[in-house]
Amino acid sequence: MSETFREGLLEGKVAFVAGASSGINLQVARRYAEAGAKVMIISRSEEKIQAAAKGLRDDGLEAMGMSCDVRDYGKVAEAFSVCRDKYGEIDIVLSGAAGNFLAPALGMSANAFKTVVDIDLLGTFNVFRASFEHLRKPGASLVAITAGQAVKPMMFQIHACAAKAGVNQVVKCLAMEWGPENIRVNAVSPGPIGDTEGMARLAPSGAAAEASKSKIPLRDWGTKDDIGDACLWLASDAARYVTGAIINVDGGSEFGDASLDATKVDASK
Ligand code: HXC
Ligand code: NAP
Q1: Which range marks the domain in which residue 230 is found?
Q2: Is 144 among the domain residues?
Q3: What's the CA-to-centroid distance between 237 and ligand 2, angstroms?
Q4: Is 67 a pocket residue for ligand 2 (Cβ < 6 Å)?
Q5: What pTM, to 2 d.p., does this model score?
C-alpha cells in the first residue's frame, strides 16, 4: 500500500481507541496517528496502556493513554471527557476491547460466559453510547472490531460467538439511529491475524496455524496492518457514504473450508 494513501488522511482529527494496549487495536491507533490524528487509547492495565502511548509518542505521534475498563460506563464516560478536554471534539471512535479463551459450554461458568459478553458487547455499547455527546456532528465515524464468530457458530467459542453477534447488531442499530446526525457506524471483521494474542489463544501450535491457513481462500493469515488500513478507510471521508456495514478483512475465511484447489482441477473430465 502506498504511503500517499495514508498521508494526511486524518489531519486535524481526533481518534479514541478502546482496547489498544496491544495487538490489532494498537496498530489501528498507530495507523490513525500516522495519518495525522491525535489519538487517545484506553485499556484496563495502567502499565500496558501508558507503555503503548509512550511507544506512539516516541515515534513522534500525538497520543495519550488512560486506564479504563470498558465494562464500567462511568469510567468510559470519564475517559471521553478527558479526551475531549485535551484534544477537542472526537471524530473517530474505535471499539475493540475483547476477551477470549477456548472452552466448551460445559467447561464454562455463567460468570465466564458473562465476562466475555460484558467486555465485547456491553463494552462496545458503553464506548459508543458514552461517545455521543463528545462527537463531531456531522461527520463522526464509529468502528467496532467484530469477528467471524458473529455469523459462524464455532465450537468452544459460545461466549465470543454470542458477544460478537451482538456487536454486529449494535453497529447496525446505531447506524440507523444516528445516521440522521451523519454519524457513521461500521464494523471490521478480521479473519485470523498473525502475531496477536487472539490467535495465540485460538491456534496455539504451529500445526494448528498451518491447518487454519490451508483452509483459507487466500491461504494465509492477515496482518495487523490489513486491519489498520481497513479501519483507516472507514474513518476517512473516502467512506462517507458507508454505514451499517460489516467489512470482512479475512482472506475469505467466512465462507468456511476452502482447502480444495479448484484452479488445479482438470475441468475437461
Ligand atoms: C474456562 C475461564 C477461562 C478458561 C477464564 N475463565 N479463563 N473459564 N476456561 N480458559 C473464567 C474464570 O474462571 C471466571 O469464572 C471468569 O472466566 C472470569 O475470569 P477472570 O479471570 O476473573 O476475568 P478477567 O480478569 O475479567 O479477564 C477476562 C478474560 C481474560 C477474558 C478471562 O482472558 C482476559 O483478560 N483476556 C483479555 C485478552 C484476550 O482475551 N485477548 C484475546 C482477544 S482476541 P468464575 O466462574 O471462576 O468466576 C479475540 C479473538 C477473536 O477475541 C477471534 C479470532 C478468529
Ligand atoms: P489483544 O492484543 O489481547 O487485544 C485486546 C485488548 O483489549 C488489549 O489491549 C486489552 O488490554 C484490552 N482489554 C481487554 N479487556 C478489556 C476491558 N475490559 N476494558 C478495556 N480494555 C480491555 O487481542 P487481539 O488479538 O489484538 O484482538 C483485538 C480485537 O480483534 C478484538 O476485538 C478481537 O476480538 C478482534 N479479533 C481478533 C482476531 C485475531 O486474529 N487476533 C480475529 C478476529 C477478531 P488490557 O489487558 O490492558 O485491558
Answers
A1: 7-249
A2: yes
A3: 26
A4: no
A5: 0.98
